[in-house]
Amino acid sequence: MAFLLIFVTLLHLVTLAMLFIATMEKSWWVWDGTKNSDLWYNCMYDNSSETWLCSSSKETEWLQSVQALMVLAVVFSSISFLIFLGQLFTMSKGGLFYITGLCQIFAGLTAFSAALIYTLHHMDILGSSPDSSSGHFGYCFILAWVCVPLLLCSGVMYVHLRKRE
């Protein structure tokens, strides 16, 4: 039982970290290694100063929905972890972690919605410039997709997990 509890806790912390990185890092769309775009900024690498120059992304309705859903996924996963800690120390023996599991499942569904919207509407989000189609999805986009099944699996595991002594 202790092994399962440690595994679920580590899985939750890993998915929370991955979700946070996917939301905040700068590579949802990558062009040629010197230009990338994320949920918040469009960045270009300046060779003369050897720094990244970033400007705010053009606010479209699709981008705002992806931003909101990713932030909600981070918030729900964080709340889920806090509820889990509270339930772990206050719940009676034999109780189930329903609230924790439902919050984690909801975080997985919001991350799924955000990644799906970005997948289907990335051209609208990036704009209609000719170089929009020459890039590819970055590691943060892939990380967001990897988080979806992990969040859903950990949510299901929380729903079936019972507190024991």
From TrEMBL:
Residues 1-16 form the signal peptide. The chain crosses the membrane at residues 66-89, 96-116, 136-159. It is a multi-pass membrane protein. The keyword Transmembrane helix applies. It is found in: Membrane. Keywords: Membrane, Signal, Transmembrane, Transmembrane helix. PROSITE patterns: PMP22_1 (PS01221). One of its GO terms (cellular component) is plasma membrane. Gene3D superfamilies: 1.20.140.150. It holds the Pfam family PMP22_Claudin. Belongs to the PMP-22/EMP/MP20 family. This is Epithelial membrane protein 3. It comes from Aldrovandia affinis. The lineage of its organism: Eukaryota, Metazoa, Chordata, Craniata, Vertebrata.
